[in-house]
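Here we describe the complex-level prediction in full. Unlike the single-chain runs in Section 2.1, the two entities below were treated as one system.
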Amino acid sequence: VPGVSSRLFGALANNQISVILITQASSEHSICFALDPADARKAREIIEDEFSVEISGGKIDQVAVEDDMSILAIIGENMRRTPGISGTLFGAMGKNGVNVVAIAQGSSERNLSIVIAKQDLSKALNTIHEVFFLSDVKTLNVFLIGTGLIGGTLLNQISEHSHQLEETQQLKINVIGLANQDAMVFDSQGVDLANWQKLLKSKGEPTGIGAFVQSMKSLNLSNSVFVDCTASPEVVGFYEDILNTSISIATPNKIASSGDYTLYKKLKETAFRHGIKFLYETNVGAGLPVISTLNDLKLSGDRIKRIEGVLSGTLSYIFNQFTSEQSFSTVVKEAMDRGYTEPDPRNDLNGMDVARKILILAREVGYELALEDVEIEGLLPQACLNAPSVEAFFNELELADDHFEDLRKRADEKGQKLRYIAIMDEGKAFVRLMSVDIDNPFYGLSGSDNMIVFITDRYSDRPLVVKGPGAGAEVTAAGVFAELISLSHFLG
Amino acid sequence: VPGVSSRLFGALANNQISVILITQASSEHSICFALDPADARKAREIIEDEFSVEISGGKIDQVAVEDDMSILAIIGENMRRTPGISGTLFGAMGKNGVNVVAIAQGSSERNLSIVIAKQDLSKALNTIHEVFFLSDVKTLNVFLIGTGLIGGTLLNQISEHSHQLEETQQLKINVIGLANQDAMVFDSQGVDLANWQKLLKSKGEPTGIGAFVQSMKSLNLSNSVFVDCTASPEVVGFYEDILNTSISIATPNKIASSGDYTLYKKLKETAFRHGIKFLYETNVGAGLPVISTLNDLKLSGDRIKRIEGVLSGTLSYIFNQFTSEQSFSTVVKEAMDRGYTEPDPRNDLNGMDVARKILILAREVGYELALEDVEIEGLLPQACLNAPSVEAFFNELELADDHFEDLRKRADEKGQKLRYIAIMDEGKAFVRLMSVDIDNPFYGLSGSDNMIVFITDRYSDRPLVVKGPGAGAEVTAAGVFAELISLSHFLG
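The structure predicted for the assembly as a whole is:
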C-alpha cells in the first residue's frame, strides 16, 4: 500500500521522534524501524492513533515493540566492493549463537547495521573486532573441567605456549573457568595459569558440574569452548545443553563417542546445527590425525572398507619389548613401573580400551555399532582377571609366562611378531592378538607408537598408513591443545 | 533529519510509485529503496522536485539510480530463531563472488531480502537453493584443461562415480568446459563424459587458453572450479585472473607451487581473499594427505622442524626392487617397461622432480625458497646424463652397474638399505641417496609407496609418519577428484 510509510514517518516526524534505522524487506507485510527506547511508548501511541481506522478495520495487524535491543553498525569505505564481508560478519554471529533480529544495508554502503539482543552486545562486539581487525589478538575462551593428569598437563602447555601463540598466531587462549571435583574458579580476565593449583585450593568455591555450566553460560562470551578432561559420565550428561548454547566441546573423554549411539549421533548433529564443533580427535591415537584423516577420506568421496590399528601405546610398547630376552610378566611389570600402564595393568590388557577406540572409528565410518558388538579376544587367562589385587594378578601372570613364551616362539619360528590389533571390516569390529610377518605394516612397529591402516576403495592394493606416538598425557594434552587452536581459527 | 523519509515516501506515494524495499542503516547519511525499473526516471524527477531546495542548497548530495539490479528474497518461518541462516547465505554469496548491494531484514523476519546485480541473479539463485534445500543436489561446475594421462583418467573417474556421488553425497560434478591443445568443448548442461574424446574431436572448436578462460568467466556459474591437468606454464599465467573472478583452482601441475615464489604467495593470498581455494595437494604424494597434514600441524600451533620423505613412487620402486638378484640397470629398464618411469627415465633419476616436491613442502612450512636452493645429489654419472638417446643412456647405465652394486653391497653388509630421500631441515632442503638401517622408518618401505616423516616440536622424539601409494595416473587423478569433492562441501 503506497502511502503507509509516508504516513508512518510523517506522524513520527511531526512528533520529533527520530528514526535510527529502517528496514522493509520486499514482499514483507511489515515495516521495521529502530528508535531510542525512551521514545518507544510515545511512538506506539502516535502510530496507533495515526492508523486507528486501519487497526480497528483489521487492515493493520498490530504495532509490536521489541525491547532490550542494540544496534551494531560496521562502517567502512568500499564495503560493497568486497564480497565476503557480510559472509564473515554473519558467519561469526551464527557460530557464536547471536540472533540477528534486523538488518539494514543501503546501496551507498559504508554502513551495515544489525539489530541484536542487548545481552549479546559485548559478545557480538568482541566477535566483530576479532574477525575484522586482523591486528587484534583473537581470544578463545576456555572452560576446563578435570585437572588430573591430562587436564593438568594441558593447563601447563597452555601456560607455556601462551606467549608464543600471541606472537606467532595472534591468539590468546584464556582459561576463564576451571574446576575439579573439589573446587571451581572463574576469572573473566583469565585464570592465572602459573598458580592454578593454588587458586583452586585457596579461592575455589565448592563445585558441581551444574553450577559450573550455569556460570559458563551466563558469562555469554564469544568463542567459548568447554574442555572435558574428566572420565565422568555425569559431565557428558551436560554436553547437549552446552552445545545448544553455541559453546563448542573438545574432550579426550571417550564416554560420549563410545557410549550410547543415539547420544553420540545427537551431539554431532547439535554441533553441526549450531555451526560449532564437537571435537574428540584424541579419543583415538592421541594427537595423531586419525579421525580427521578418516573424515577427510569420507568427505572426499572415498569408501572405507577396512581399518586395522595398533591403538594402544601401552600394548604396542609391551609387545615391542617382548623378546626372547625377558618374560611377558617382566615386560608388563616394567611397563607399569615406567607409568606406561593404568595403575592396574589389567585395564590395558583386557582390551576394553582398544575396543572402545575401534568402535569410535567404526562409528565415524558410518556404522551404528555399540561396544557389545565389538568382539574382543582377551589376552589374559581367567585366573589373572579374577585375581583380587594387582600383586595377586602379577603372581597369576607369571604362571602364564610359558603360555605367552610359547606364542612368541611360534611366531618367531615363522619370522613373525605378535601384535594386538583392532580391526573394523565392512562394519564388523574385533580386537585380537595376531602374529604378523615382515610384509605386514605392523611388523616394523617400535616404541609405544600407534599405527592405523586404512584400506579404502582408493587405497585398496596398498593402504594409507598413519603412524606415530599415540599415548601418554603429554601427547594427549597436546592433541587437545591442537584442537583448541584449530577451533579458534574455525570460529574466527 | 526527521521528516525526510516522510516527505520522500509521501511524494512517491502521491505519484502512485510503489516502493519494494527500503533500507536505512543507522548513522547512515542516505536512505536506499528499490522500485520497478520502469518507475526509476519518474521517481528521480519527483524526488529532485520535492527536495529541490535542499539539493540546490547542498544539503542533499544527490539522487543516485543504480540500474540492472535484482532483489532476491529468502522467505521462511522462524528464520530469526535460527542463528546462522544469514551466515550461510552471505558466506555462500561471498565464496561465489556475488556482491550484495543492499540488505533488508525486518524484525518480524520471515523475509530476508538482498539486492544484487542482475547478471549475478541465476548464480545467486542456484547457490541459495544448494545451501538451503538439503534435498537438492549440489552442483560443482568443472572447467578442465589438459586431457592427457591424468586429465583423461580424472574424466573417466568422474564419469564412473557420478551416479554414486549423486546417491550418497547429493553431489553432481558437471564438467562444463573441456580443452586440450587441439580443441575445446562447452556444454552448460555438462559435457557427456562417456564420449568426451569424440566430442573434442568432432565438435571441438580451435582452442587457446585465453578463449577458454574467457568463456568460463562469462558463463558466471556458481561453485566453479578450474582444473589444470597440463604441465604448461602458459596456463599457470592465467591462475591469478581466474582466482580473482572467484573461481577455485585444483591442479596436479607443480609449476605454480614450485616456480616463482612471489607468484606462489600471491595465488595463495588471492584465493584466501576471495574465500575460495587454490588446491595442489597432489603435487606431493599424489592423493596422500601430505600438504593437508602439514597445514593441520601448523594451524594447530605445532612447529615443523624437519621433514624426510621418499617422494618419488618411481625411485621408491627402483630401490625396493634393487637386490642382489638383479643389476641396477635391469631394475630401471623393468620399471620403464612397466610404465612406472617417465618416457626418458633420467627425468626421474635426475632428482629434479623430488627436489620440486621437497621445495613445495618447505614453502608450505613457511620458508621462502627457490628450486636453486635445493641441494640435489644426483644418482647418475655424467656420462649417463650426456647420452644422446634413451638407448645410449641404458648403455651408459650398464657401465655404472658396478658402482651401484658396490653401494648396495656396502649397505647390505651393514644391514642397511639404499633409499633416495628428500629432507627439509629448519629451512634447508636437500635430496640424496642414503643408506638407512632397520630402525629408520624408510627401511621397511615396499612397492612404489611414498613415505613422509614429520619431526616437529610435538612429534620430536618419535615422528608422525604418513605412508601409502603416491604416484601414477590413477592415484593422482583420484587425489584431484578428492579435492573436487572436498571443495564442493567447502563451497556449499
